[in-house]
């Protein structure tokens, strides 16, 4: 990592070194990598990524922004609140923090600057709001987590993350409103009932997509993978035939972008699976569970939060979940932590790292758009990070936040 070797190749090289030192045949690495990538659930990854690409290019973003603005535009700091609301809705479609930060940021950061917001505050708002994407289902990160650790339902974890995502969005909206009121940032003014109805009608096609995905999954109509393919068909119909903003000539580029993201996820999963075999072969978990079994679960969870937030500052969330989740999750289960709560804690922790200095990737995405340095963005992002971490602690120490909804749905 210090030398700048990509994480996936770092894992492969490290695992091969272990195999050679331990006298194992290197063919085991290839076998374990194949096993790690050979999961039917991984088919959902390219489908969800492609769905996000179609929605971004299909012109649905503007409809979502107008919809949120129609209901929140009358409050102080309206555009900042719209940014958070749009990130929550867009995140439930795209599921990727960087994609949300880039696509929404290009539209909303200039809007905030034009309305008189400080550029650094605009960048900080967008950077923090984009964290809602990987938390609000469907989430590629959560799919990777469930496949990496086992013993956890993907649909159940999706449900477990809904309440934390809504709580975090609410807390961020309150911060945006308070800061805007203190600095006298403008509002858009009230919208009439007819304007609200018009904005809602335009946004219905985009809003209906999460309903199709999550409603189909939780009602048992189709599996996660089937839901992702239905989402592609639906978003493709909107992009090609309703909005008519995507053409046949755009398909190769859409597929290339989807393939790039999917390839990254799969090679990380394969490399992580090989390393997980090495960890299991050395019985590292047994040596850790013994000393930690006498530790109170609350202390273990607190240590996990600290470890993962620090890790998230330096490592990509996909890489971190592949490397650390198979080690941490079983220890939490042994201490009596619910698997769904454990999954939510790990994923939310790693997502927070995406907006935490020194290497929070969303900070580096939004700062250039706003024309400010990362340091300036970080200063303005501190209140958002504080409330986001506060919501994480509530998720950590109040199990009902993550377990109530899945239990009601039978998970």
Beta strand count:
0
User: Can you give the mean pLDDT?
Assistant: 84
Low-pLDDT ranges: none
User: What form results from the Cα inertia axes?
Assistant: globular
Number of helices: 20
Helix content: over 70%
Distance between the termini: 38 Å
Structural class: mainly alpha
- The amount of beta strand, in percent, is under 5%
Q: Please give the largest β-sheet.
A: none
Order of helices and strands: HHHHHHHHHHHHHHHHHHHH
Could you tell me the radius of gyration in angstroms?
A: 21 Å
Could you describe the 3D structure shown?
- With 411 residues, the chain is an all-alpha fold.
- Helices cover 79% and strands 0% of the residues.
- It is built from 20 helices and no strands.
- Helix 1 packs parallel to helix 13, helix 4 packs across helix 5 (78-94) and helix 7 (119-129) runs parallel beside helix 19 (374-397).
- It is globular, with a radius of gyration of 21 Å.
- The two termini are 38 Å apart.
- The relative contact order is 0.16.
- The model has no long low-confidence stretch (mean pLDDT 84).
Compile the SSE list and pairings.
Elements (H helix, E strand, L loop, with lengths): L6 H16 L4 H11 L6 H14 L2 H13 L5 H17 L2 H18 L4 H11 L2 H4 L4 H10 L4 H30 L9 H27 L4 H19 L8 H31 L2 H9 L4 H18 L2 H18 L4 H14 L8 H10 L3 H24 L2 H9 L3
Helix pairs in contact: 1-13, 2-13, 3-12, 3-13, 4-5, 4-11, 5-6, 5-7, 5-10, 6-7, 6-18, 7-18, 7-19, 9-16, 10-17, 10-19, 10-20, 11-12, 13-16, 14-16, 15-16, 15-17, 16-17, 17-19, 18-19
Compact overview of the structure:
Helices cover 79% and strands 0% of the residues.
